[in-house]
Design a protein that fits this description.
With 261 residues, this protein is of the alpha+beta class. It is built from ten helices and eight strands. The chain has helices at 97-100, 120-127, 134-146, 151-165, 172-178, 183-194, 198-216, 222-228, 234-245, 249-259, and strands spanning 14-19, 27-36, 41-46, 52-57, 66-70, 76-81, 84-92, 112-114.
Length: 261
């Protein structure tokens, strides 16, 4: 769960890698995972507020491979891997959203639909070692899309990056100031490209940071963590945590302890 938006690379039988594609306005990174398992393995994932396009193969799909478009959501999600398989995913920037789908606003949240515009057959061949390099296929597909990123998309990406990286940004007004735009403009653009409001983006970052700490350091004191995040008491923190992450702090801590045996 410490690798948000990606399958956790620390599990035996799972090999994980990621790389940048050199298209920073459009793509955050490409992630690749292969697994060979003797028994089912449940992976816990914290998701970025952005779209993923994923090509995958294994017992979990019908046919030789499947390509899906997966929308942003703040909750912890779980996925059970079995047998032998692989997946390659492109984690996009918010600017990519209107170039990939007609969905907007809250219609993006949690979407999980088949995607037909990726070079899936070529990517599958690359993953099985039967053809050209993965990076080259992706660059050929995505470079024309990167050339179409517009000013609104760049603003959405900038706001999402700042909301994620700057702990001092705690309000929508502060986020708007940081990207040099009006609160109303940032609200409209961010919501259209991510499905979240600016306030939700900020709270998502705060709660996901808390989730990562509770998972990796299960003995963290809840009252101290709540105070560090600006909450007056841990009961209020716990309610907001469950509302954003989708489970209680205690459930996250228990999962962290279980992962360590």
């Amino acid at each position: 769960m410490t690798s948000r938006g990606h399958l956790n690379p620390g599990s035996p039988g799972v090999v994980f890698d990621r790389f940048e594609l050199g298209l920073p306005d459009l793509v955050r990174n490409v992630w690749v995972v292969r697994w060979r398992l003797d028994r089912p393995l449940t992976q816990r994932v914290l998701n970025y507020p952005a779209l993923n396009v994923v090509v995958e193969a294994g017992p979990q799909v019908d046919g030789s491979h499947h390509t899906g478009l997966h929308g942003p959501q703040p909750h912890v999600t779980e996925r059970t891997l079995t047998g032998t398989g692989w997946a390659v995913g492109v984690l996009f920037r918010p600017a990519a959203t209107p170039l990939l789908t007609d969905l907007v606003d809250t219609g993006l949240l949690g979407v999980d639909v088949a995607f037909h515009d990726a070079p899936s057959t070529r990517l599958a061949a690359a993953m099985t070692g039967e053809s050209e390099e993965l990076r080259g296929i992706l660059q050929e597909w995505l470079t024309p899309l990167a050339d179409r990123v517009d000013a609104a998309g760049r603003l959405a990406t900038s706001a999402a990056v700042i909301a994620e990286e700057r702990a001092d940004i705690t309000t929508a007004a502060a986020l708007a100031d940081a990207v040099h735009a009006s609160v109303r403009t940032v609200e409209r653009v961010v919501r259209r490209h991510t499905g979240f409001t600016p306030k939700q983006l900020i709270e998502c970052r705060r709660m996901q940071d808390a989730a990562t700490q509770l998972y990796t350091e299960p003995d963290t004191d809840l009252s101290t963590l709540a105070a560090d995040l600006g909450f007056t008491d841990h009961a209020h923190f716990s309610r907001r945590y469950r509302g954003v992450i989708g489970e209680t702090p205690g459930r996250t801590r228990a999962a962290g302890r279980a992962a360590r045996g």
